[in-house]
Amino acid sequence: MLSPNMLKRMMMTSDAKTLVIEKRVRAPIEKVFEAWTTASQLIAWWGPDDVVCIGATIDLRVGGHYRIGNQLADGQVIWISGTYEDITPPNRLVFSWSIDQGAPSTERVTVNLQSSGDGTATQITVTHERIPDIKARERHAVGWTGCLDGLEVWANRTGKG
Predict the structure, then answer these.
(1) Are the C-beta atoms of 124 and 151 separated by less than 8 Å?
(2) Element (H, E) at 73
(3) Which of 35, 43, 49, 99 has the most crowded CB, counting CB atoms within 10 A?
(4) How far apart are CA 125 and CA 24, in angstroms?
(5) Mapping DSSP to helix (H, G, I), strand (E, B) and coil, where does residue 53 land?
(6) What is the Cα gyration radius of the chain?
(7) What does DSSP assign to residue 145?
(8) pLDDT at position 145, please?
(9) Residue 20, beta-bridge partner list
(10) 88 CB contacts (<8 Å, ≥6 apart)?
């Protein structure tokens, strides 16, 4: 179930296959981009509170692959993987999205980063497209909201610069 606070931070388009989540993080855009593109940093912030990121690999080039391991609260491990389609440092990442537990997925994620005027904060917009159904979209909403909350905590803990 989505909390009222979560609903304020996300936009579910009329298209059930698309989800947009936005968050402002008090950290320079370069630091935020690096957090998305460096495995050791991604492991430190990835996932909602009840998920532990157990590993990540990133081949940061167009056509390169990534893989992220999530251990759920019940102990189950799922792996998310995909291929980078566009990389525009420090503003944009586009990648395919598949959970290794089923049929190949055609889902796509676009991460857009925009620096604040003074460079001390970054507006993050995650657009997750081609989601198979409303229930999956709601699960993604919970996951992305938790991920961006984790990124904010990580940025605050590691300093602004």
Answers:
(1) yes
(2) none
(3) 35
(4) 9
(5) strand
(6) 15
(7) H
(8) 97
(9) 11, 127
(10) none
Residue 130 has which token pair?
A: 């081609």
* pLDDT tens for each residue of 50-76: 999 999 999 999 999 999 999 999 999
In three-state form (DSSP H/G/I as H, E/B as E, the rest C), the secondary structure along 101-140 is CCCCCCEEEEEEEEECCCCCCEEEEEEEECCCCHHHHHHH
End-to-end CA, the chain: 36
What letter represents residue 95's amino acid? F
What confidence tens digit (pLDDT) does each residue in 108-149 have? 999 999 999 999 999 999 999 999 999 999 999 999 999 999
The number of residues in the chain equals: 161
Encoded tokens for 156: 């605050």
26 pLDDT higher than 80: yes
What type of residue sits at position 58?
I
The C-alpha atoms of residue 32 and residue 34 are separated, in whole angstroms, by 5
**Which has more pLDDT, 88 or 3?**
88
pTM of structure: 0.89
Tell me the HSE value of 70 on the side-chain side, using a 13 A CA sphere.
21
Task: Write down the residue that tokens 């609260």 correspond to.
Answer: 73
pLDDT digits (tens, 9 = 90+) for 89-110: 999 999 999 987 655 678 999 9
Could you tell me the pLDDT band of residue 161, with boundaries at 50, 70 and 90? low
